[in-house]
Every structure is written in C-alpha cells, then in structure tokens.
From TrEMBL:
One Pfam match: GMC_oxred_C
Protein name from the UniProt record: Putative dehydrogenase
Key words, A-Z: FAD, Flavoprotein, Oxidoreductase
Glucose-methanol-choline oxidoreductase N-terminal domain ranges (all copies): 142-329
Length: 573
C-alpha cells in the first residue's frame, strides 16, 4: 500500500532542463513544487579534476543502468523488438540535471519553417511534395510567437554566439560574444564564403566570458579543455540545470527535490490528474504524491512511457494513423559528411569545447530550392572542435590498413592533420515510426519497457547523400588532399554505433486534439492539469540540436501553468 503524502501545488517528474526551468519559474511566483528525480544528487564539485575519458566517455558514468531499465528496438512492425543491452546510438542520462549535465552545449533555434512545415511546404511546392506516409504537421505555434522564450532561455544560459544570417529574426543579440575562432573554423568560413555561403559561429552554452544572468547566477568562462560531451563541467562554464535554474528554485524555499524517486504512474480521475505514484529505489517503498498540477519533464521515452502506462491520452495506432501518444517519433540523420586530411597543416584537435565551431544553414530547412530534390528540409553543416580525446579518436585516410606498421604510421601522422565537416540532418516523421509499450520485456519493477519502431527511409538517404556532397565541396575548398572520406551512403538504421541523443516526438504538440497530444503551452488535451515538457513535443526533428527549442518551449509551458493556476483551470488558448 503506497503511503500518501501531503498535497503540493505542483509535482515535476524529472529534474533536468525542463524540470529545472519549470521549478524556477513557478517557485519564483510562490508555488510549492516537488521535483521527483530517479537518479542521484549532482553538483559541480563532483567533476573537479575528473578528466577521465574511460570512466565517463566509454563506461557511461552519467547514464542510466541498462540492466534495470532500457528500451527495445525494431526496424519494422513485423520484426520482434529486442532490448538495447549496451550503449550505442544514443545515451540516456540519469541523475539531477539529466542530459543537461553531459550535453555539448550547442544551442540553436529551430527555423521559422520548422513550426509551420506542412503549410509552408505545400505553399511552395504543392501537396504532392509530401510523400505518402510522411506525417509532418504544423506545431500550433509560430517562430515569432516562440521568439521571446528563445530569448529568455538564451539569457538565462548565457549563450555565446553571433546572429545566424539565414535564421529567424531576433529581438536582441546573444548575451555573450561568440567563442574563439580556431584555424580550422577560419578555413571553413573562408571556404564557405568563396562558395557564396553564409557561415557563422556556433551558438554555445559554453560561456565565452564570465557572465551573470538575469537571476543573478554568476558563472566562469570556458577553459577549452575539451571535456564537455558525456562529462560534467568542473568550471560551471557549460550551462546546465544544476548551475543555472535549479539553484534559483531552491533559493526560494519552495522547491523540494527528491532523488532516487522512480515515478511509475500519473494518478487521475476523469480528465484531471490527482498526483503521481513513485517508488523510492533505495528502500523499495511506494509513495503517492498528490498535486494540483502534474508536469512531466523527463526524457522523450519516459514521458511517452508513463502516459501510456497511466492510460492518459489515446495511444497511437500505426495501422490507422489514429491516436496521439507515441506518434511521430523522429531521430536525426547524421551520416552525411566528409573528412579531409592535410599533409601540410597541423591542428590542435585535442583542445576545444562542446560547442566550438563554425556552421552554415544554406542547406537547412527550406533555405534552398527543393523542387528537383527527392527530400524536404535539410541540415546544418559545420566544422566543430569539441576536443578529440585519445581513446575515442583515431582518423586515418581511406585505404589505410586497419592494423600493422602502415596503420601506426598513418595514425601518428594524421592525429592532428584532419578536419571533419559534418551535416546534422532533419528527421521527418512517418506513419510507421512510433513508440509504444513492449509486450514482452519489462523493467526492474515489472513495468513494460518503451519500444521504438524506426528505420531510415528514402527521404533520409537522399538528404544524407546531398549533404555529404556539399560537405565534400567545402572540405576540398579548404585544401584537403585528394583522399577524402565521404559518407554518402545511409544504410538501415543501426542502433549499435553512437549517432546522437536527439530523440524527439511521442507526445507532440499541435492546434487540435485530433493530431496532437498537447497544445502550444504543452498542456494535455485529455488532462487539463497535466503538462508534458520536453523534446517529446516536437512534431518532427530539425537539422539542429534540440535543446534551445526545448528550453524555449519549457519557458512557455511555465507561463501556461501560471495562467492555468491563476484562471482556476480550463484549457489555455
């Protein structure tokens, strides 16, 4: 029998970026908030002088234990899904701060095209441009409506950057100057300009200088140590929830964090939630936490899974296309790119930062004509210097033997003589790509695992090949030798090698309950006091990292929760 606890105004499920932002905004307005985090406590001091590639990058210190909970995967509906037993394609964070602790810090705004993708595609090319089975839809919000929330997130995080010449209009500049320009970044920019393209420095959550944000949180500048992705930042220079929004919420005295608290169900009567049921993983005790408002702010898979287990919202049916919970799962297309090797130049590849780089959007969104192309959308193309660590990085030119004397010689020669130009491609949703509960495999508590059904399609293959050619053109213009490594071919989706942790969809937003789970405040159509915050709300995935857009939507959701509270209930418009 679960122990019933005293009621609070709001309970938050997952204390990462979304949960931290919601907690900060609500507690500043006097609401009492409990944050339930299934992982452990974290603080900056945990990472002092811990540049341990083996422990963090290869043994996944900050990720969840796959022996207790994982996902299952299949490429098609007529194939049995199997559990992901070891980390590969993406990494599932756990603990206070969530994936916001171990991210790189690349903080883009999705393009205006993204938020009205169906309407704008049809307007320019006609309805036949959208292939059969592609389930793109408008998001129920425009870029202009979301712009103030982008601005708020960037000022909170201290994003360093310069204006994207092909991006949406900005109400104010980035709060800190761009990161330093390295030799490889300058070579990329010069080559791009010769081709009449529009390069700009990556927007970065790695601070370019010391900064104090509007909440009074002061942080130090990045030291370019190269230990960002898969690591916590020992300097606090990388914006993460633990050093930005969570301290603000805690300072109010209105925010209680309970770590090691595994939420298993949202409790509800009719179209209203009454609280959540969770288990203390250290003792096995079950608790019921009543609340006026429930906010799901966990990772994409968990948001979808808990709603399905709680029987909230209509589950998606891929055979009919009806239903919404689990719909429009999307990933990212990262295989289109080129690596150039330089016999006459040497670079300091082992220094860097998670978001140190130069990029361009000439082939992203609908910034170029797709009339004669067999895909829509595109990719952000970039050169990044994130810090190549010695165990994980060993590039040699194509044709080099994979072992022996020649391999060793090439490894030593090209250790600091290669540049990779990559494309981060958008992922469009299709009717056959979705999330649901696995009928066979369960977690340590006996609850079903979330199941992914996904594979690359022709849209992805065409996009990857197109972008690989564009990357190769830039690398050649930069002066690389003739032995380029060009990744044009996109085979079946393989969950084994790491690609990105940019999973999206499952609880998507829109203008109607017929085709979406939440409105543009991320309020559930089917449960008015439940808000579902995170990249689970994305109706497709853009050619960018998702965190900046997720952060903006989190600030809008917080505003919606306050409006809902003030009005005494009802659906927000």
């Amino acid at each position: 029998m679960a122990k019933k606890l005293p009621k609070v105004d709001v309970v938050i499920v997952g204390v990462g970026w979304g949960g931290g932002i919601i907690a900060s905004e609500l507690t500043k307005q006097g609401l009492t908030v409990v944050g339930l985090e299934r992982g452990k406590e974290r603080k900056t001091e945990d990472y002092f002088m811990v540049h341990d590639e083996l422990r963090y990058a290869l043994r996944y210190e900050l990720m969840q234990d796959l022996s207790k909970e994982t996902i299952t995967f299949r490429s098609k509906m007529n194939v049995r899904a199997l559990p992901m037993r070891s980390y590969g394609s993406f990494l599932l964070g756990t603990g206070l701060g969530g994936s916001g602790v171990h991210w790189n810090g690349q903080t883009f705004r999705f393009l205006p095209y993204d938020f009205e993708i169906r309407s704008k595609t049809i307007e320019r090319y006609g309805a036949k441009k959208i292939p059969e089975g592609m389930t793109i839809q408008d998001w129920g919000i425009t870029y202009d409506q979301l712009e103030p929330y982008f601005d708020k997130f960037e000022k909170m995080a201290g994003i360093a950057g310069e204006e994207n010449p092909l991006g949406g209009k900005r109400s104010s500049p980035y709060p800190t100057p761009p990161m330093r320009t390295t030799p490889s970044m300058k070579m990329f920019a010069d080559a791009a300009k010769k081709k009449n393209l529009h390069p700009y420095i990556l927007p970065s959550a790695n601070l370019s200088q010391a900064y104090t944000n509007p909440d009074g949180v002061a942080r130090a500048a990045c030291q370019y140590c190269g230990f960002c992705e898969r690591f916590g930042c020992e300097y606090g220079a990388k914006a993460d929830p633990v050093v930005t929004v969570i301290p603000v919420a805690k300072k109010t005295g209105k925010f209680e964090i309970r770590t090691h608290s595994h939420v298993r169900r949202i409790l509800h009567t009719g179209n209203k939630a009454t609280g959540v049921l969770y288990t203390d993983v250290t003792t096995g005790e079950e608790f019921e936490q009543p609340a006026d408002i429930v906010v799901m702010t966990s990772y994409v898979f968990n948001n979808t899974r808990i709603l399905l287990m709680s029987k909230l919202g209509k589950p998606y049916d891929p055979t009919t296309g009806k239903g919404v919970i689990g719909k429009n799962y999307a990933y990212q297309v990262l295989r289109g790119g080129a690596v150039g090797f330089f016999d006459d130049k040497e670079f300091n590849n082992y220094a860097g930062a998670g978001s140190l780089g130069m990029c361009l959007d000439d082939y992203n969104g609908d910034n170029f004509d797709h009339s004669n192309l067999k895909f829509i959308h595109g990719a952000n193309i970039s050169v990044t210097q994130t810090g190549f660590r010695p165990i994980g990085t060993n590039k040699v030119p194509p044709g080099t033997p994979s072992w022996g004397k020649d391999f060793k010689a090439a490894s030593i020669k090209y250790t600091n003589r290669f540049i990779s130009v990559g494309a981060q491609g958008a992922s469009m949703p299709f009717q056959q790509h979705f999330l649901d509960l696995d009928p066979t495999y369960k977690d340590a508590f006996g609850d079903p695992l979330i199941r992914i059904t996904y594979d690359f399609v022709d849209q992805d293959r065409e996009l990857a090949a197109f972008c690989a050619d564009k990357c190769a053109e830039i690398v050649k213009e930069m002066g690389a030798n003739e032995k380029l490594e060009i990744n044009r071919k996109l085979g079946p989706y393989d969950i084994t090698p790491y690609q990105s942790t940019h999973n999206t969809g499952g609880v998507i937003m829109g203008a109607s309950p017929d085709n979406s789970a939440v409105n543009n405040y991320l309020q559930m159509w089917d449960a008015e006091n439940v808000f579902v915050v995170g990249a689970s709300s994305f109706a497709h995935n853009s050619g960018y990292n998702p965190t900046g857009t997720m952060g903006a939507l989190s600030y809008r959701a917080a505003e919606g929760i306050l409006k809902y509270r003030k009005s005494g209930g009802g659906m927000l418009v």
